[in-house]
Amino acid sequence: MTATSVLETLCTYSGDTNSAVASAAYTLQAPTPAFSLPVGSYAGSQTVTISDTNAAATIYYTVTSGTTGTTPTASSTKYTGAITVNSTETLEAIAVVTGYTNSAIAGPTTYTISTTPGTLNIYLSQPGAQSTTVAGAVTETFDALSTGTYTSPYVRLLE
Description:
- The chain is an all-beta fold and 159 residues long.
- The chain has strands at 4-9, 22-27, 34-35, 40-43, 46-48, 50-51, 58-65, 77-78, 83-85, 89-96, 106-114, 118-123, 130-134, 138-142, 147-152.
- It has no helices and 15 strands.
């Protein structure tokens, strides 16, 4: 069979009339690739891999800055390994398998990367100076009963 084939069949029995020919058209399509990282917002660079359930598939992809993607084709960048996303980017991919029609487009998948330093508000209620260490490398000292705002790329608020 090729990417699009028609299969025809009939039934015969000795001494009887042959059945009518039955036919059906089939289209073989490569499976749609999958991205390893869910769509979303992330603090800092992320690594994305693309996979396909057909081991014979060649994956082609596009990376576009911002939230509007570009449709990939068999002339797009061939996927050979993990992609590092450093800023807000949109990925799309297709799988190509010889003898099949190209897969549906995976994506657009937008990853929003925040590179803005986080802000940590520290409220102290004990008497005397106190220190706060962030990421084991940065220390800020505040006097008692004061409010300080500390900005650092090492701070991430967890919910």
